[in-house]
Fold each of these.
Amino acid sequence: MHGRGNTIGLRLRELIYDLQDFYLLSFRGSLGIVSKPFYFKDTIEQMDYAGAGSFLIIVLISLFVGMALSLQLSAELSTLGLKMYTGKVVGISIIRELGPVVVAVVYAGRVGSGIASELGSMVLGHQVDTLRVFGVDPTKKLVTPRIVSALLMVPVLTIIGDAVSLLGGYYIAVNVGHQSGTFYWSSIREVLNFENVFTGILKPFVFGYLIACICCFMGLSARGGSVGMRQSTTRAVVFSMIFIVITDFVLTRALLYILGFSI
């Protein structure tokens, strides 16, 4: 029992140290956005990798998410005689919840894993130590560009994904559900109010920041050769997805209260 207690205490202490290092890395990486030097080239490269490289997969997944949602809602609402509300429900679901979460999860799986594996290989290859030898701050050089890229690209990809999902929902509602396309788009315009749009734009910024910070921390924490890099990459994606879902719930609850929605 005494040995087990020591093990638990040691793990708890390691967890506290890891959280401390994570918060420090996130703070210093964020501070680098407004302090010199500015690594514009690195930032553009990361934006190209994260944005242009994720465009097709975001479009493909968002299209089928919108089509599947519209198909399911059309079937369920038609039994209640409420098929005309398909566009409104699809619009609210996509803009407020599904759009930001789906894009963030895809971003974490594709870009986040790449960040963790790239930084992990740099740590194991002693490239990060080389930067320190030459007087370059690794956090400023490696973490800040990836945070900036995520803050810009995740919202942009979310807007694109939302638009494609709504188009997919329109196709199903008109061609399968035999609804009026004009009424569908008028329903979409009704849900494009300040509350829904604000919620749909705020979440991607938070998700992007979390993904970038978590994946950078996991990558820079890689130890133990190829096995350690595999573990750090896996942890980066898993923790990113967990915190995306948890943060989505917290933000949804807080925004519903702030914006005055009654439950």
Amino acid sequence: MALLEVCGIKKSFGSLRALDGVAVTVESGTFHGLIGPNGSGKTTLLKAIAGADFADGGSVVFAGRDITWAPPYERARAGISLKFQIPAVLRELSVYDNMLLALQADQTLWSLLRSATRRAKYDEVMSALESFRLAERADDLAGVLSHGQQQWLEIAMALAGKPRLLLLDEPTGGMSLEERRVTGELLQPIKQHCSLVIVEHDLDFIRDICDRLTVLDQGRVLATGTVAEIQSNKSVQEIYLRRA
């Protein structure tokens, strides 16, 4: 069943046409990769889905609801979560408190003032950190984590609201080979309850975790299919060779 249907999305910045009639369908319980050369529109498409930038035309339908003009907070409440490329953890707070704040996002001001949820959410915080190999770093400041660990923390925070769709923009950028391998392992379990749309330049990484791929080039969809279909696509091969 289609969880996300993007149809004919257009987006321009002045004279630059970043997206030109892009259509993408993401099925429930799948990982869908967006690949393509720099400037092909991948990040712009994620922002259009999440509402960080409204599209100029086309439609975005999520779980059967047209959210094309819905503000970002409504999309988040509907079950869409977006993590940008650069980590945005609160560096001067502990790893524990970063995770706690993410889990407290839906709490009332009164419960926060009484610190009622800090005690109540201890097990939930530690479980989330354990899922991303960060439980032993709970008391450390987020700013002393490695780049890869900060990415894992922010992914865990993005999942705090139990979204149905997680949008990730180049999560492995700047990671070591080992951190990339571990990231793939950490993401796999979320498929049980959350679909994923991921922008990546690491083709080996995205090939290993994704069910389907969409290739963008100059703001248009060049091809969509399984990993095997994309790998054997002549047009896709020419695009990458031309920019090698």
Amino acid sequence: MILVTGATGMTGYFVVQELQRRNYAVRVLARAASIAKAPPGADIAIGDLADIASLERATNGVTGIVHTACTFTDSNVDINAMQALLDGWQAGPFIFVSSLDVYGFAQVNPITETHPLNEDYGDYARGKIVCERLLTQKAQALGRRDYAMLRAPYIWGPHPKAYTMVVKPQLLAGEPMILPGADEAEWSQYQDVWIDVRDLAWVVAEALERPPGGPLNVLTGHFTWHDLYTAVIRLTGSPSELLHKPLAALSPDEQKALQLYAQTWRFSAEQLQQQLGFQPRYSLTETLAATVAQGKRTV
């Protein structure tokens, strides 16, 4: 029996489906109000990240833990929940879905798993870093190698949450989408990373079966923000236009708001490929099309 937290969210839901496809029995942690969103066929443990006793009950008798749940807003709750799950970790691997945010605004490319972590990047990143540390310390204290921290990027796919991530309000309102960059030579350098949630679920399942015993950068590839929003505008039929502005021409408030769109980082997935043999099944075009199609059906 594998415990999966966050199974009523996007990543956890697809992880449960992948594990069930591999004939694993799955227990999911879910709040009472969210039971209807739980994947069918799973054993349900009523609980919440803030309810430590419920986490203790959920871990009872399981043979592995996949921790995808996160408050996204309160690292103290996330850290306390991680400690409770680790206290209940007895048999089988522990797989933690972390984030590439742990590196902060990294300055050295390519960014590998050995790059220093940055707790000052924000509360969310701090929570992930501390949770990773707790997992590593627990595993070392027990002399175990059956664990993993999967540092994930933007996660998209056929789920309503992904739709709200890629289809910004200004696109729905037909307003211009402002991106940094004086010309193509500049904006083509600004990029970030992504993975399809179905591919991430495969990685989680593989890590459960072949635990790497440490962190892995988990990603399909890089994209430019110009190409991303060009595709989203086309797929949604939005009348919005992309407006590129040189960074020097932006106000301080605009520069702060567009800071994430002006990064030139590149992340290495070499260890992921070497240790788990990951080969992405979905292109960015396919993933965005599935994301928008699912969103249109549910919005």
